[in-house]
Amino acid sequence: MAIFKGHRFTIEFDEAFPQGLVMVGDVAPDNEYLSNEDKARGKQAKQRIDEITGKRQWKLTATDLGETKAKRASFEITLLADVQPVPTTSEVLPGMRPIELDGLTAEPKVAGNGEFKYQGYAFRATGFKAAAAGGGAKSTRSGAAESKAA
User: Does the pLDDT value for residue 107 go beyond 80?
Assistant: First the structure.
């Protein structure tokens, strides 16, 4: 059985990011590229639509707290939803908030430049998980991440 290019593997958030993720900035529409000529003509950028799900694409920048290499720690994640997803956690520093993603998938891709290529992943999710309440494992992990940042 062959696995075709573009296959998205379902993965649990805790498996992909055991140390957690921090969202940097805000969720924004993932718009198609618009050249300066098109902008001068007054064309408006269209929001991208996912070809598999048919949902609108939104993007956010995240930092993986478990990544040791600075160049690989921050990356974009695509959210697939009809309306703009809203994070369920509050900011721990201005513009930074710990997040957990729901409906997470990973698509293998080649990353890097020239002879410095490596195996990377394009992550997509359907939204944010509700903030953990009480003293569960997720709360402990978030608390550890916050103490590292301090």
Answer: yes
Which residue type is seen at 122?
A: A
CA distance to 6, 7, 9, 106, 111, per residue, from 3 (Å): 9, 7, 10, 14, 19
Residue 150 clears pLDDT 50, i.e. is over it: no
**Of the candidates 63, 72, 125, the residue with the CA atom closest to the CA atom of residue 97:** 63
Strand partners, 116: 113
Q: Record the pTM.
A: 0.80
**Helix (H, G, I), strand (E, B), or coil: what is residue 105?**
strand
- Residue 44 CB partners (closer than 8 Å, separation 6+): 34
Q: Which distant-in-sequence residues (6+ apart) come within 8 Å of 22 by Cβ?
A: 62, 63, 65, 92, 96, 97, 98, 99, 145, 149
